[in-house]
Amino acid sequence: MTLQLFGHPFSSYTWKVLIPLWANATPFEFRMVDPAHPDNGAELKRRWRFGQFPLLVDEGRTVAESTCIIEHLDAHHPGPHRWIPDGELGRRVRLLDRIFDQRVMTNMNAVVWDALRPQEERNPADRRVARERLNTAYDWLDEDLDEGPWAVGEQFTLADCAAAPSLFYADWVEEIGPARPRLAAYRARLLAHPAVARAVDEARPYRPYFPLGAPDRD
Ligand SMILES: N[C@@H](CCC(=O)N[C@@H](CS)C(=O)NCC(=O)O)C(=O)O
């Protein structure tokens, strides 16, 4: 098998890469990173000292960082979907990818990581700031997102691969709510996409690990 993907089915950034792999029907071997597969964790750490996933290995070559992995797939394993279009549309895709990673995922993760700490190490001020920043991102997206169906219109791109996991989990941390109908409708469309629905389903068994308690609604 040419491609190996190290990751975990409950990991948001792993979803970001599973979604394009599944959407383009690109064959790959999944290398589960968990205590039951210590060899996978050890190889991940050997190849990428930060120890974070997803990590792609393509015929022995290590490709790290979800956005860069998707760029690599676009260049070397093309399929029906083009993940980063040329020109102005591509620049918009890259902007939205940054917004979803840095302004949605990062703030969602800050709240989750804080909840995973022992009680005496938690920081309510950091949590409050992260939630405020999430709300600012939601408001920007609700105003600025294209009418759809996808982040930049008709084409399902890198921006949607980043949006699906970040909005899925962020809504569990801080509800998008009815005041942002355009963003809420976009999240619902994403969850109905077959590759995203598969990611949601394959992550279902791990929901008890969500430290804030997973809501029933998805
Ligand atoms: N910027 C990285 C972020 C990857 C990341 O934060 N992965 C999380 C899982 S969703 C992880 O590996 N967490 C375990 C750790 O940080 O040790 C990317 O885009 O791939």
From TrEMBL:
Residues 90-209 form the GST C-terminal domain. It comes from the Bacteria. Pfam families: GST_C_2, GST_N_3. Residues 1-81 form the GST N-terminal domain. CDD domains: GST_C_family (cd00299), GST_N_family (cd00570). PANTHER family: GLUTATHIONE S-TRANSFERASE GSTA, GLUTATHIONE S-TRANSFERASE-RELATED. This is Glutathione transferase.
